[in-house]
């Protein structure tokens, strides 16, 4: 029998087509309650969920794994908001591919190794982090819980994790850094107007961000059918909250990172269709921050980016929502690493749900891994405490598998510890 729970504060959030669209009314995200006619997000298709016991966890401490936060998040969220979180492209095949990709690799377990002391720390640009688990940039987190990015930042601070902040954040970078207690990395959607881009870059550099992460996927429109289906079962009027509309520029006008910026010449928030490697050089020449490129999945683009002097790569297909290539990021990681040849850090995101997933990526050569949906499930389910619990579970699972396969440290780990699954 399902545990009875008090309605979550998230039940007061508003409807929206996308998190970009949620930008329009960040200040009144929680002023409009779900109408009685709106059906639950539980009616929305869930491509990223696994079959779980019908019992919903009533507190973060009950969770056995990060997947157990997902059905609670789905219950708490309005259908359109949950649909945006869950959606991929077309029939969500690349979301599934990201998960299935991990099954194509096996860990080679050593037994006669001293694992009484573990060290899961990694170094990124001279900073040592206790864990390789990084919080990926995700848009408009107040769509999932009233504390939004600030709650996530406090969780990252409590658990000592690196946090990446999205351009489409619902809290200003300065406030997030204050909540985090130290600078965060900043993810940049460049827009089509260089003046807007340059203004944002200058602001985040002045705020103290040491690393700028340029997203280069999401080239043009994507066919997000799960999102569209979720909107069908959400009977509330988006316009009641999205007073500036759900299309650019109205959908970003009230985002804090676009305060006082002139968007008259901009035609979109995402990377311009004309983006080429020359843009990377122009951006790097504009700032003293390290420049990392997010969205690279091939050796050719890796080489082109390195030729422009970028400082790092994030292998990413935007959580399966950039294109329906059917190719997982863990399978793309190898050719990117071969092109890099150890010259810059290589991070990877996409489908990480278990400690074993993390260790496989690290054994293949990743510098760190990024998670997105799992910590948003935790946020939507239980706020900051949910995010902390997700991070704690993944850290614990990573430690367990490190011991079980005889890897006391991530430093010096080699690809000899992972093999392809026989076909």
What is the compact description of this entry?
The chain is α/β, with parallel strands linked by helices and 423 residues long. The protein contains 13 helices and twelve strands.
Any overview of this molecule?
It contains 13 helices and twelve strands. By secondary structure, it is α/β, with parallel strands linked by helices. The protein has a single domain (9-412), classed as TIM Barrel (Alpha-Beta Barrel). The strands form three sheets. An eight-stranded parallel sheet has the order 4-11-10-9-8-7-6-5. It has a two-stranded antiparallel ribbon with strand order 1-12. The protein is globular and about 65 Å long.
Head-to-tail CA distance between termini:
42 Å
SS-derived structural category: alpha/beta
> How would you classify the quaternary structure?
single chain
Number of helices: 13
Shape label: globular
Mean pLDDT: 86
How many structural domains does the protein architecture include? Answer: 1
Name the CATH homologous superfamily: Aldolase class I
Overall CATH architecture: Alpha-Beta Barrel
Contiguous runs where pLDDT drops below 50 for at least 5 residues: 1-39, 48-52
The succession of helices and strands, N to C, reads: HHHEEEEHEHEHEHHEHEHEHEHHE
Percentage of β-strand residues: 5-15%
Radius of gyration: 20 Å
Query: What is the class in the CATH system?
Result: Alpha Beta
Number of strands: 12
Biggest β-sheet: strands ordered side by side in the sheet: 4-11-10-9-8-7-6-5
